[in-house]
Amino acid sequence: MEAAVSLPLLVALMLGVWEVGRMLQVNATLTNAAREGVRIAAGGSWNGQPVTVPIVQKQVKDYLTAAGFPAAAVDGAIVTVTNLSGSSWTDPCDAAPLDRFRITITIPAGPAYNSLPWSPCSSITGTTSACVSAEWLSTNDSTLTVNAQLPY
What is the pLDDT of residues 83-105, one digit of tens each? Predict the structure, then answer.
């Protein structure tokens, strides 16, 4: 009798813990993907070529694929690079040293979000999309002018 009363409660509790744990894992993976994107964008060049927004987007999506995200979630992910500084650059390679920028990854509601493997009762939390962002400073090289004339 005690098992009949307590077992459904324990199963519901275990499924809730499982779902919250999975949500934390997905959030951590998305955060790491955003950090990978800002790391690449901060340098201004990647494999000898200037870093553009499409390069950052591809690297973030490659990270999500390597982390085991389903193709629908990776294809549906929206990766944006936002310039937070006063400069007018659009690609990270054009940023001045120490310009602030943000990379945001959003997995919208619908097929992209639904493709993520949740627990069987994903209606416990009621979330329908995932969004993370990371802010960083540009580490592009400063333009340095050297006066070759000696002072004396």
Answer: 998 888 889 988 888 899 999 99
For the chain, domain boundaries: 2-137
Q: What is the mean pLDDT of the chain?
A: 86
Asked if the model's pLDDT at residue 119 lies above 60, the reply is: no
**DSSP structure string for the chain:** -HHHHHHHHHHHHHHHHHHHHHHHHHHHHHHHHHHHHHHHHHHSEETTEE--HHHHHHHHHHHHHHTT--HHHHHH-EEEEEE-SSS--SSGGGPPTT-EEEEEEEE-TTHHHHTS---TTTTTT----EEEEEEEE--PPPP-----S---
At 99, the amino acid letter reads D
Mean of pLDDT values over 15-38 = 87
* Region at 44 (left for phi over 0; alpha for psi -120 to 50; beta for the rest): left
